[in-house]
Amino acid sequence: MPDFKVPLKDYSFLFNDVLDMQSKYQHVKGGDQATPDMLDAIFSEAAKFSETELAPLYQSGDKGCTWDDGVVTTPAGFKEAYAKFIEAGWTSLTGSPEMGGQGLPSSISIAINEMLTTANWAWAMYPGLSEGAVATLEDHGTDEQKQTYLTKLISGVWSGTMCLTEPHCGTDLGQLKTKAVPRDDGSYNINGTKIFISAGEHDLTENIVHIVLAKLPDAPKGTKGISLFIIPKFLPAADGSAGERNGVRCGSIEHKMGIHGNGTAMLNFDDATGFLIGEPHDGLNAMFTYMNVARIGTASQGAAAAERSYQGASKYARERLAMRSLSGIKNPDGPADPIIAHPDVRRMLLTQRAIAEGGRAMVTYASQFADLYVGGETEQARSAAEDRLGFCTPILKGFITEQGVLAANHGVQVFGGHGYIQEWGMEQILRDSRIATLYEGTTGIQALDLIGRKVLMDRFAQLKIFTGEMLSFAAKSLPWPRGNKTQRKQAWTLVKLALKWRYLGYKLAMQGKRNPDAVGAGSADFLMYSGYAYMAFMWAKMSAVAQAQLDAGKGDSKFLQEKLHTAEFFFERMLPQAQVHAKTIGANLESVMAMSEDYFDAS
To answer: Tens of pLDDT along 413-450?
Structure first.
C-alpha cells in the first residue's frame, strides 16, 4: 500500500478560507486559543503522528485482536502507538480545562479524528469512542462522577465505550433486557449481555469505562423506561486509581468483515456495580449526547475511506500500464499507456476525490454547530446549534458513509485483480468502510430519523433554514457581472436543488397522510437527495472561494485549479444522481408493499 499523506492544504482551505472558522471561534468557549498559527501547528503534528506512527500499522493490524479467556490483546504496535498518543496529550484537546483538558473547540478534534481514521481506522476507534463517554459525563454526570472519571478519560489513561446493542435487539432499544436493581449504598446491581461493543475490551488502557443502557425494576415499557449507567471494568479505588475488578467480562470478540484491529466485544454484566447517570428512565435523552458525537465521527469515516482509497488508486493508476488510449498513444516508449489515460479510470478517481473532499467539507461545516452546542456563549445559541447539528447528523452519517463504500469499491476496481488480493491493501479499505453504514444506526435508520424527526416532526423548520442558507449563498453569485459563468451555473443549480428539496419534504408528508408506509419507502431516497444537495452546497462554496483567490492572485494556484476542476466534475457527473433519487421518492408504493410476506420466502 502506498504511503499515506494527510491532505493538510485541504484542512487549511476549509478552516481558514471556505468556512472562516476563526470568526466563528469568537463565539465559542475556548475558541480564542484556536488561532491560525495554533491550528497549523496542531494539524501538522497530528498529520505527522498519523503518517509515521499509525499508517505503518494499518495493514499489519488487519491480522486482528486475540481473545484468551476474556483477555483481549491488540495487534503488534497498537499499544506502543497509544502510549505515545496520550503522552503527547492528544486525547485532552477538547476536554474541560477543569478536568485536565485543553478546552479547544470540537471541530479541531473532529478534523484530527479523520486524519487518524484515514491512517488506521481500527486503531483510531479506541481513543475516538472515549470522546462520547466524556461528552455524556460532562453534560449529565454528577460532580462526583466527573471528578472520578473525567480526568482519567480526558488524559487517555482510561478509555470509554457505549453499550447499547443486545443479542435480540439493535436499534429497537425498547426491547432491551439488561436489568439494574438499586442497592442500599446508591449503586446498582447490573445484569445483562451487550454485543457489538467496539473497543469493549483491550490492553491499551488501565481501565475501561462502559456507558450502559439498562432498565430499572419500575421502568415503563418501551424506550421511556431506559436508564443510563457507568460501569467501569475496575471500580475506582479511594486514591482514584483502578481498583477491584467489577462484574463485567468479555465473553468473546466478533469475527467480522473488517476493522479487525479493534476488539468488538460481547460483554457479560454479572452482578456488576453500576452508577446512574442523570435521572431514572431518562437514559435515552442522555445517550443522544453521545450519539451526536459518535455519528459525526462515523460520517468522517466515510470521507476517510474515500481519501485513503483515492491515494492508493491514484498512484497505481499513474504507474500501471494497460492498453492504449483511445485518443492516441500517451506513452510511446512503453508497451502500453498508464491506465490513468483511460476515461473510466479517471471517472472513478475523480469520484473518489470528490467524495473525500466534499465529505470533509460537509463534516467541517457541521462541526461549527458542534462547537456552539458544546461551548456557545448563551443557552439560546447552544439550543439553536443543537437543532442545526441534529438536522445535519443523519445526512452526514447516512450519505457520506454510503459514498465512502462507493469510493473504496472504486479503489479496488482501479487496481483490477490486484485490488482483490490482500498485499495491496485496497480490499481492506473496502472491508473496513462497510461497517460505517451499519454502526451508530444503519442508513435506513438515519433516513427515518431525517424525514421523521428532523423534517416532519420539526415542521420543516431546519430544512427551511438549511435551504434558505443555500438560496442566500446562490443569490450572491447570480447577478451579472458577479462570478463567472461556471459560478452562476452552479448557483442556479443550488437554487433548483434547494427548492426541490423542500418540495420533496412536503411531498413525502402528503403521501404519508394517505399511507404512512410511503414515508418509509421514500426515506432512503430522500436522505440521498439531501446528501447530494448538501454536498453540492459545499462544492459551490469551495468553488467560489477558489475562483476568488485565483482572481486575486492569492493562494496555491495549482491547488485552487484542481479544486475548481473537481467541483465541475461533481456538478456535471455526480450530482445528476440526485434526480434519480427524487424521481424514486414518488414511485408507486405498491411496487414495494403489494406482495405478502410469503413472496419473500426463498425456500
So the answer is: 999 999 999 999 999 999 999 999 999 899 999 999 99
Contact by Cβ (8 Å): 296, 173: no
Rounded distance between C-alpha atoms, residue 549 and residue 305, angstroms: 29
Active site residue 440: yes
Distance between start and end Cα atoms, the chain: 43
CB atoms under 10 Å from CB of 241, counted, come to 12
All three cell numbers of 197, joined, read: 461493543
Name which of 166, 290, 167 is nearest 228 in CA terms.
Answer: 290
Contact partners, residue 71, CB within 8 Å, separation at least 6: 201, 203, 250
Cβ-contact 293, 131 below 8 angstroms: yes
C-alpha pair distances (Å), 234 with each of 91, 120, 273:
21, 28, 10
Give the separation between CA 261 and CA 73, rounded to whole angstroms. Answer: 10
Kindly name the residue from 114, 307, 402, 440 that is annotated as catalytic: 440
Nine cell digits for residue 229? 449507567
Helices assigned H by DSSP within 282-325: 283-319
Q: What are phi and psi of 231, to 5 degrees?
A: -130, 100
Q: Which residues pair with 248 in a beta bridge?
A: 269
Q: Is the Cβ–Cβ distance between 565 and 542 less than 8 Å? A: no
- The Cα-based distances of 204 to 82, 162, 487 in angstroms read 7, 17, 50
Q: Which residues contact 19 (CB under 8 A, 6 or more apart)?
A: 361, 364, 365, 368, 541
Map grid coordinates 431546519 to a residue.
Answer: 462
Q: What does pTM read for this prediction?
A: 0.97
